[in-house]
């Protein structure tokens, strides 16, 4: 019984690890975990738009954005929904902003803290920046 629980835990861990990266992971049994089928059940809205799913993955993973931005509460940075609202109102582009091509529209007094992240986002591909924008703009 204990052994069964242990392998279940290892399996769950393997799945959660596979959700963070974009490479396929193997589970405790050595089988490839197909992350598209593993994640779609919990997040149906990301299943329909691959760019949105990629954006969320980058936001929470490689981009480290989630450390400072929560969906609907201000923490270190403004809430994602407040950023999305401002960018919609002003018809501005998050993808351009995180490529260092824009002025801060949400909280200019804290811009220096955000600016430090451009090292990460400028090194990304244009598609990755667009994916981050798609994800952030989807939060209401
Ligand atoms: C160390 C904390 C921190 C991290 C990590 C961080 N941000 Fe920010 N972010 C901030 C702060 C503080 C602001 C408010 C300053 C501002 O508006 O520029 C902000 C503002 C923003 C804005 C609004 C900019 C504007 O027009 O005012 C966007 C868009 C944004 N962040 C995207 C991101 C993305 C995408 C990532 C991940 C690649 C990220 N942030 C990571 C702290 C952070």
Automatic annotation (TrEMBL):
Pfam families attached to this UniProt entry: Cytochrom_C (PF00034)
The species this protein belongs to is Flavobacterium celericrescens
The Cytochrome c domain, residue ranges: 50-140
The record's listing under InterPro entries reads: Cyt_c-like_dom, Cyt_c-like_dom_sf
Entry's PROSITE patterns?
A: CYTC
Q: Which portions of the sequence form the region Disordered?
A: 24-50
User: Would I find Transcription among this entry's keywords?
Assistant: no
Xref: SUPFAM superfamilies:
Cytochrome c
- Which residue spans traverse the membrane? none
UniProt protein name: C-type cytochrome
Q: Which UniProt keywords apply?
A: Heme, Iron, Metal-binding, Signal
The positions making up the signal sequence are: 1-20
Q: Where is the composition biased (Low complexity)?
A: 38-47
